[in-house]
Amino acid sequence: MEAAKRGADVVAIDLSPTLVQLARERLPNDLGKGCVDFRVGDMLDPALGSFDYVVAMDSLIHYRAPDVVRVLADLAARTRESILFTFAPKTPALALMHAVGRLFPRGDRAPAIEPVSFAKLEFLLARETGLATWQPGRTQRIASGFYTSQAVELSDTCAQWTHMHA
Questions:
Q1: According to the model, what pLDDT value does residue 108 have?
Q2: Distance CA 58, CA 150 (A)
């Protein structure tokens, strides 16, 4: 919504039709020059085309660290500037809850959040050839009550160099 208010053409996508409809209903009528194209589907679908920026908020919290990196490399191949994403940081409290959650029958569990060590994630990002020109930048831990997430910005250093020397 904020990007659209600033003039961006936004593709908002989720696998859940219910969440997409809820977001559509909450969207204000006046977005200025921007627009939001709501879609139900997979954010990794190459048919979506390429983007200047990608924001994946809590989209990767169910992935193991190697899978997070693979998804980011796939997105980076279609992104010109930067990717902002969140992951579930590995904390003692989350690790304990994750272990206790395994004691319950599979049918009674919500989709598992995969705690990821930031150090491991940085190591894997640095080794991924599909992210060779991409560097982690700003990062911030987000904690509100029970919810804890970590936001990271990945930027294409080649794109930054091109803008500075254009």
A1: 53
A2: 9
Are the C-beta atoms of 53 and 22 separated by less than 8 Å? no
pTM greater than the 0.85 cutoff: no
Q: Are 91 and 117 members of one domain?
A: yes
Question: Residue 138 sits in which domain range?
Answer: 51-164
Q: Is residue 46 part of a domain?
A: no
How far apart, in whole angstroms, are the C-alpha atoms of residue 64 and residue 82? 22
CATH at residue 149:
3.40.50.150
pLDDT value of residue 31: 86
User: According to the model, what pLDDT value does residue 144 have?
Assistant: 78
**Which of 87, 84, 111 minimizes the C-alpha distance to 98?**
111
| pLDDT of 138 over the 50 cut | yes
For the chain, how many structural domains are there in total?
A: 2
- Asked if 32 contacts 5 with a C-beta cutoff of 8 angstroms, the reply is yes
Q: For residue range 110-121, list pLDDT tens digits in order.
A: 557 788 889 999
Give 42-75 as a DSSP string. Answer: -TT-GGG--EEEEEESSSSTTS-HHHHHHHHHHH
Residue entry with tokens 């899978």: 67
